[in-house]
Design goal:
Length: 125
């Protein structure tokens, strides 16, 4: 089990910046990647950025050049620095951790998804 707590959301004007923080607790030794997703009203949840245990990063096209994901292993924390925010970045941002394990029942690989409660980011024009 992994628990995730996000913080750092808020209201900002277009062109402004915010830094989101997600702290993981529980079975953190099983974490191999940490992601940020977002969901705007009426839209599906989408991946914004991801970082692996080897610090390899992946970004959605909409985030490239503006957002930076980073992590502090010692603190089990992942950050999302968001610069040059736009009104279309308005959404609830969720921290996500996939945990890969072997099923005790049949020995097959299993992926468990853990989500934070979300933090609202609102960008005004």
């Amino acid at each position: 089990q992994v628990q995730l707590v996000e913080s750092g959301g808020g209201l900002v004007q277009a062109g402004g910046s915010l830094k989101l923080t997600c702290v993981a607790s529980g079975s953190t030794s099983s974490i191999v990647a940490m992601d940020w997703y977002r969901q705007a009203p009426g839209y599906k949840r989408e991946l914004v950025a991801a970082i692996t245990i080897g610090d390899k990063t992946t970004y959605a096209d909409s985030a490239k050049g503006r957002f930076t994901i980073s992590r502090d292993r010692a603190k089990n924390t992942v950050y999302l620095q968001m610069n040059d925010l736009k009104p279309e970045d308005t959404a609830v941002y969720f921290c996500h951790v996939p945990i890969f394990r072997t099923s005790a029942e049949d020995g097959r690989p299993v992926k468990d998804d853990y989500w934070g409660q979300g933090t609202q980011v609102t960008v005004s024009s």
